[in-house]
């Protein structure tokens, strides 16, 4: 079987880390199986869908290193949905219903009060043509429901194993709104059939939808794709992310300086048996990750884990790649990069640190340390310098001043960098050089 998967976001907000989970998992599955990846915009909600959000989603995919084999918009495919609608109406699987939202709400409350499940009672199926004409004369417009078989729909889930959804305990879903626009449950099935989608990989919150959609596939005379429902990525408190609230949006993570590979790793590996660690690229993750490794429990995102992972990726960068990203900042050398890298977790922190420590440091010398700093200046070794210079110099200072520990090292750090903490001075000293060091010890 030639694998075809799709990612179908609605362009009604920015993608967040939770949205990235099915996105990356679909991409990895396609890459592992030499398959096809489709980006399909669910933009039939014309009120909330915007071109700006669609463009933002494409930017997010490009940043993550995901290149769709095909991009489509549901708003361009209305004739397909119309044809499927007409077929299902003719076969009696779609029927018009005229209840208002308030009327439906009252029905649900009444059912609960009587101890019955609050599902739609199919009253619309009893309407005569005369009833419908009268309702429409009153100005009512119908919404259209798909008539479920009301049975146990069983399927083998790639991740969760054997699943059964009882559509008899569900309301017939509304698939066409009063204004004639289509809902995703319907259009998704029509598109999946037309595009030959073989696997649908999505969050476990869609399991119940799968029963409905399998019945829709069957009603349209098509075999169902293979489904896989993964655990959802949540925040540290176990809450879901919100696209409209911008919770950990990919654009914000990008602006904050996180590496796209770190974000992709967190989105896909969190909540699996694989360790969260650096990988060279997405293909390397694809080769290791099996759906059997995805936990059936929650997948909680830890911001500290992202920070640590990002740091490991940044620290492993070679200097050529760093220069391509940050440019020539004050003639920064590879030696300076090696001295500074362990003190940053994001590459965006490199330039401020370099400027603060190497270029524009403001020496700090306490009154009680002035004699000690004068001695440090007098004993500063001649060049050339390397990482052994710091040890030699502080060894002499320890012997001559009697200082040791913090009393020895902190005044030197403050004089050379103006900071209480920072890069290891044995690595930084050769970067500063003797001339700069002498000036800062003055």
UniProtKB/TrEMBL annotation:
Listed PROSITE patterns: AA_TRNA_LIGASE_I (PS00178)
Reaction it catalyzes: tRNA(Glu) + L-glutamate + ATP = L-glutamyl-tRNA(Glu) + AMP + diphosphate
Domain Aminoacyl-tRNA synthetase class I anticodon-binding: 363-441
UniProt superkingdom: Bacteria
Biological processes per GO annotation: glutamyl-tRNA aminoacylation
Pfam families: Anticodon_2, tRNA-synt_1c
Record has Kinase as a keyword: no
Single GO MF descriptor: tRNA binding
Enzyme class: ligase
Transmembrane regions listed in the UniProt entry: none
Motif residue range(s): 'HIGH' region: 9-19
Enzyme Commission number: 6.1.1.17
Signal peptide: none
Compartments it resides in: Cytoplasm
Motif 'KMSKS' region per record, residues: 240-244
InterPro entries: aa-tRNA-synth_I_cd-bd, aa-tRNA-synth_I_codon-bd_sub2, aa-tRNA-synth_I_CS, aa_tRNA-synth_I_cd-bd_sf, Glu-tRNA-ligase_bac/mito, Glu/Gln-tRNA-synth, Glu/Gln-tRNA-synth_Ib_cat-dom, GluQ/Sye
Keyword ATP-binding carried by entry: yes
Keyword annotations from UniProtKB, A to Z: Aminoacyl-tRNA synthetase, ATP-binding, Cytoplasm, Ligase, Nucleotide-binding, Protein biosynthesis
GO cellular component: cytoplasm
Residue ranges of domain Glutamyl/glutaminyl-tRNA synthetase class Ib catalytic in the record: 3-272
Physiological role: Catalyzes the attachment of glutamate to tRNA(Glu) in a two-step reaction: glutamate is first activated by ATP to form Glu-AMP and then transferred to the acceptor end of tRNA(Glu).
UniProt similarity note: Belongs to the class-I aminoacyl-tRNA synthetase family. Glutamate--tRNA ligase type 1 subfamily.
Subunit organization: Monomer.
Database matches in PANTHER family: GLUTAMATE--TRNA LIGASE (PTHR43311), GLUTAMATE--TRNA LIGASE, MITOCHONDRIAL-RELATED (PTHR43311:SF2)
Protein name stated in the entry: Glutamate--tRNA ligase
Organism: Pelagibacterium halotolerans (strain DSM 22347 / JCM 15775 / CGMCC 1.7692 / B2)
